[in-house]
Amino acid sequence: MNRPTHFEIQADNPERAIGFYGKLFGWGFTKWEGPMPYWLIKTGEGEPGIDGGLLPRMGGVFTPDAAVNAYVCTMMVDNVDATVSKAISLGGTIALPKMPVPGVGWLAYAKDTEGNIFGMMQADSSAR
Per-residue confidence of the chain (128 residues) as pLDDT tens digits? Predict the structure, then answer.
């Protein structure tokens, strides 16, 4: 079975996106010393998950026909309502309101400050 090993977030304004995700999920960002602007993302320690990277959006502006424009990653959260509220307070917007995934939990999708969609899932086997 193939599993994700890395994700990337493209941003019109990398510093703004770093602030958004750092404050929302507590992620750490380290500037890569390579030949292009790139930040390594550390999402945590000791729990299942993957780390990623952040870079300026290729082509400079989001367009639906861009070679790379989106990939939805969903983060497990303790409280989806509180995390949605925090995302909004940090400049995010709701893409799809909280909904049940029966027997799994509660899922909501938001857009970050760069227009990228991401998911937030709260485990709850009683969700209906």
Answer: 767 788 989 898 999 999 999 999 999 999 999 888 999 999 999 888 899 988 887 666 666 666 555 667 899 999 999 999 999 999 999 999 999 999 999 999 899 999 888 999 999 999 99
Residue 2 in domain: no
pTM > 0.70: yes or no: yes
Residue 1 lies in a domain: no
Q: Which domain holds residue 51?
A: 7-123
Strand 74-76 and strand 117-123: pairing?
A: parallel
C-alpha–C-alpha distance, residues 47 and 59, integer Å:
35
In a domain, 33, yes or no: yes
